Amino acid sequence: MKNEFVEALANLQENEAITIAQKMLESGTMAEEVLELAQQGVDIIGKRYENGEYFLPDLIMAGEILKEIASLVKPRLSKGATARRLGKVLIGTVEGDVHDIGKNIVSFMLEVNGFEVLDLGVDVPPAKFVEAIKEFQPQVVALSGLLTVAFDAMKDTVNAIKEAGLRDKVKIMIGGGQCNENVRQYAGADAYGKDAVEAVALAKKWIGGE
Ligand code: B12
């Protein structure tokens, strides 16, 4: 059933992937394992996109299927992983950018790993991040962005946080698409993470979960 699930997801067979995920959960497969398998499916989808086998609409479709799988898995995590809250992470896609498939994966993986996550969504202006830091009081702020213009938006966001006098209250990580160490330096963030696994590792390191 596990291979079939990965295959169904990789082949973007929505109904099949969801039905198998449901069956796995009902027959006792751990929610965490379903997520790991989903990640394997996503990796295959990413490779097929790079090889020119898949196109934009396929990735959007993949995002939709993942959202549905996430909604199936989440309630089952509440007793285990999500019961122990390690700390708070504020996440959003920066202003001018509406890409959210990767952000949603990061957000989801952080939740699964025990963090309380406030997701501000996409195209989030710097002022909204600042306001949310004041209210939600996260230890970590995660900025996602895939467009080149997002690099400036990331920098503006970090500056706005500085100007609000909140820079020493939060650790800031960035990620998404073309981001790298240079962008991190340019934006003035504390770290760059290449994927959701690194995002979780950074949050753990900073909040002290490990
Ligand atoms: C899907 C997609 C779209 C979808 C987005 C759907 C959605 N709901 O997100 C749609 C069709 C809407 C779209 C629109 C546009 N897109 Co687009 N899009 C893509 C595409 C094909 C895939 C992005 C994706 O989802 N990847 C899969 C996810 C899982 O990967 P990821 O986001 O990188 O996330 C992973 C890591 O980076 C990391 N991560 C992500 N966020 C964070 C945050 C932190 C803190 C950390 C630590 C890690 C982390 O973890 C994730 C999981 O491992 C890319 C091409 C590509 N290969 O990246 C182009 C791409 C990003 N798009 C591009 C462009 C140009 C556009 C448009 C301007 C097109 C247009 N002319 O209208 C618009 C922009 C709209 C806007 N204002 O944002 C360009 C950007 C070029 C540039 N340098 O600026 C790209 C690179 C395509 C290209 N080669 O030209 N797009």
From TrEMBL:
Keywords: Cobalt, Metal-binding, Methyltransferase, Transferase. This is Methionine synthase. Residues 86-210 form the B12-binding domain. Residues 1-85 form the B12-binding N-terminal domain. The gene is metH_2. It is an enzyme of class 2 (transferase). It comes from Moorella mulderi DSM 14980. Belongs to the methylamine corrinoid protein family. One of its GO terms (molecular function) is methionine synthase activity.
